[in-house]
Amino acid sequence: MNETLKVIANRKSVRAYEPLPLSPEQRKAIMHAAMRAPTGGNMMLYSILDLEDQAIKDRLAVTCDNQPFIAQAPMVLLFLADYQRWFDFFQHSGVEALCQAKGIAFRRPQEGDLMLAISDALIAAHTAVIAAESLGIGSCYIGDIMENFEVHRDLLHLPEYTFPIAMVCFGFPTEQQKRRPRPGRYPEDLIVFKNGYRRLTAVELDVMAASTQDSGETLNVGQQIYLRKFASDFMLEMNRSVRAVLKNWQ
């Protein structure tokens, strides 16, 4: 196994950090990696907010489902799906007048544009995560940034055609975090299909259940995940927030 594959295999989420700052060189290397990520049409349909203000981090630690380690992370990057920059550029370039002259409709960003921008932003985020891991720097994705849209919009001055799809905390893992076992993954034959999708059989669903951590709080692991994740208060809020964001793109 080469060094790149080892980095990918060894990576795990890190939620506790040593009180050490990242060096300017390390920060620059992580940012450079993110900006070299694959991107649709080379448009770089994302923006990265480097959140250094402690007051902002303190607030996000509360609004992102009460996770104090966010405030303690030495580096926090927010990856935005961003079509605002290109829409502003189109307007600056006189595209609206061009469309009028050609007799074609001038359109605003829509749902498909959002999906493409989300893909760009997530690819950039994970490229940054792998780069950090190669430097011995741990990371943790914060999907809860999609909650409380109105709060985050106002806190971070987010314009109409942006969407906070992922926030990532970076820092040097504590010894406890280094020793913590990496969580397993589902068997490949439940995830990888040849040439087309297929639904899992009852037997395969039982294998999936056996591969999932169970707290024993419900009759089975499917019920546990439904209550703890799918139907949780934070997921209900996330869905409400996403619906609010989508109004800008529809």
Number of helices: 12
Radius of gyration over all CA atoms, rounded: 21 Å
CATH class: Alpha Beta
**What's the overall geometry?**
globular
> Superfamily at the CATH H level?
NADH Oxidase
The helix/strand series, from N terminus to C terminus, equals: HHEHHEHHHEHEHHHH
Count up the domains.
1
The largest sheet has its strands arranged as 1-2-4-3
Low-pLDDT residue intervals, each spanning 5 or more residues? none
Straight-line distance between termini: 46 Å
Q: What composes the largest sheet? A: 4 strands, antiparallel
Could you outline the blueprint of secondary structure elements for this entry?
Elements: H1 3-10, H2 24-35, E1 46-50, H3 54-63, H4 69-72, E2 75-82, H5 84-92, H6 95-102, H7 111-134, E3 138-142, H8 149-156, E4 162-171, H9 175-179, H10 202-210, H11 221-230, H12 233-246
Antiparallel strand pairs: 1-2, 2-4, 3-4
